[in-house]
Specification:
Length: 268
């Protein structure tokens, strides 16, 4: 009996430290497994996020959701019962993509080039039992290849940009990440129609639009897009450049927040 007890103690002393180390490396500690509750849309059920979400950018903070009025506006655009396709560009940890929870009869394609954010987004989808969102850890531009992503500290990660004239932060890290143009992506994935786009990419919106020219002309999706001149300049873009492109594509637009516009196709 005494020998068996010593054996059990020995095994425990060997295994428990390994479990502790493994759990912390892979985010499986008891602390990391807890979930936090947030509300995206008033009068709808809450969603859950992994605690790591609060450390990435400023989207989630003590029960407050950054840009919640904009999220609710986007929600109001989505049809309750019809099938639709959404492309979420700059998905971060999912404050827009998690709306898929309320629209199971829809398909979402969410792009997030930052590994930490994309991984956390996938965890948040699992927490909410969401199965109609596909996550792509890649940037989107007007070509397919590689781009350089300049990144601020983790708590400001939403400011990361592929622009070269950075004015809003001092980069603490630079990564080379893959990128794809949406026209190539649409063709490769045989997507028959895109109904909605949300673009929040810290100044690279015009590059994304140019890389989606064929799809935009084909589908005329409704677009909710960041429209921030400071961010545009980081990518060498002027507001007039975006205005000209939207006009050429047959769109009209109006502000729906201090930094965002709603772009809708002009019906003739």
């Amino acid at each position: 009996m005494e020998k068996s007890l010593r054996t059990l103690i020995y095994i425990a002393l060997c295994i428990f430290p390994l479990y502790f180390v493994y759990g912390n490396i892979h985010g499986n500690s008891q602390m990391d497994n807890r979930r936090l509750q947030y509300n995206l849309v008033n009068e709808l059920p809450d969603i859950y996020i992994h605690p790591t979400s609060e450390k990435i950018g400023v989207t989630w903070s003590n029960g407050h959701v950054w840009d919640k009025p904009l999220i609710q506006k986007f929600y109001s655009l989505l049809p309750a019962d019809d099938f639709f396709v959404v492309i979420d560009l700059g998905a971060q940890t999912g404050c827009f993509s998690l709306l898929a929870k309320y629209f199971p009869n829809s398909a979402w394609h969410s792009f997030e080039p930052i590994q930490e954010a994309a991984t956390t987004l996938k965890e948040n989808l699992v927490l909410n039992d969401i199965h109609n969102v596909s996550v792509y850890q890649t940037a989107v531009a007007n070509f397919s290849g590689k781009v350089t992503l300049s990144m601020p500290p983790m708590n400001d990660l939403g400011l990361a940009t592929i622009g070269s004239n950075i004015t809003r932060f001092v980069p603490t890290m630079v990564r080379e990440v893959p990128c794809i143009d949406l026209d190539t992506f649409i063709t490769e994935h045989k997507i028959e129609r895109v109904h909605f786009m949300k673009i929040d990419t810290e100044g690279s919106e015009l590059s994304i639009l140019r890389g989606a020219r064929k799809m935009i002309m084909r589908d005329h999706p409704i677009i909710v897009m960041e429209y921030n001149e400071t961010n545009m300049r980081q990518c060498g873009v002027l507001k007039q450049d975006i205005d000209n492109f939207l006009t050429e594509m047959g769109y009209e637009w109006k502000p729906i927040s201090s930094d965002d516009v709603l772009c809708t196709p002009i019906t003739s």
